[in-house]
Amino acid sequence: MSSLLVTGGAGFIGCNFVRHVLDHTDHTVTVLDALTYAGNEASLAGLPANRFRLVVGSVCDPSTVDELVADHDITVHFAAESHNDNSLNDPSPFIQTNLVGTFELLQAVRKHDKRYHHISTDEVYGDLELDDPAKFTENTPYNPSSPYSSTKAGSDLLVRAWVRSFGVRATISNCSNNYGPYQHVEKFIPRQITNVIDGIRPKLYGAGLNVRDWIHVDDHNAAVLRIIDDGKLGETYLIGADGEENNKSVIELILELMGQPSDAYDHVNDRPGHDLRYAIDATRLRTELGWEPRFPDFRSGLADTIDWYRANEAWWRPMKAATEAKYAKTGQ
Ligand code: NAD
Ligand code: TDX
Q: Among all residues, which ones are annotated catalytic?
């Protein structure tokens, strides 16, 4: 049994991670979350008070970070500004949270000699051509495209430097696009599902041929636990479940699963600098740590996710209008 400090635990992947940990281990969990527009206390409702608590605060606040890191065995760092479109409109909070926040955590784990796991993204590797048979591996050079992905890349490099220079006991994971319950309605899949529920036509950026490598959030989180338990210190693991789909086919599938004509969507302005394709080769994770995805069937995972948004309108409704108003400003 260990005590875990989970930053960003009121966000999409973090809240699913907390539930996963409480369900599958006997660890205790403290969440440190600033409850930004993306954090939601409701995502942590009903968790057992004897094993879980929420501290509202920022990873950029050195004294809060120092105190909490000192008090826990392992820090798992999910907190970030996570949305590419927001990073194009205002990069400033991305610099603060993703770079400065990671720096503060690294200083604390170094000082208190604590185990640290860093959550990152495949977007640090840039993008691939549509017809390229290659996928990203742990050896692919970093080549990020957006303010979001460049700050995530920078945060990964800080971790590597703190490992090498100061002997920090850290691992890094870079995962592909997650889907599942509790994802903010600004993101592609929940935006389209909640649009259809609201009678709004789904919005496809540009021609929609861009490919994302979808993984169910529980498969991501199970992999993170495997890495925390048995990952080699100082190493990076890529997490992906061979779920490549282009955006157009995802929108058509959502429409089909929701009983709508598959062409009932709009093309809207493309994202500037829009990455073409992401694809993960997770051989290392599978062979060294024995991880396998438990939810590799995208169609049934998507159907379950649609059911979740239908059943949990009270969770997403408060964010919907403000999110669409933000998109309206950029014609998206
Ligand atoms: P999210 O935006 O849903 O959640 C982020 C959480 O961090 C929110 O609860 C927010 O309140 C919190 N937060 C933001 N700034 C903070 C600060 N300064 N201090 C403390 N808390 C703060 O994001 P997500 O999709 O759950 O992503 C979580 C992590 O996983 C991120 O590091 C992201 O880069 C990474 N990741 C995401 C995906 C994906 O598909 N969503 C894929 C790979 C990696
Ligand atoms: O309305 C939309 N229409 C559309 O076509 C939205 C919101 C998005 N898109 C496209 C853009 C992308 O090609 O769908 C794809 C997915 O978009 P996002 O959900 O914004 O995800 P992406 O930019 O791929 O980044 C996600 O995966 C990697 C997460 O948001 C990141 O945090 C993670 O690092």
A: 122-123, 148
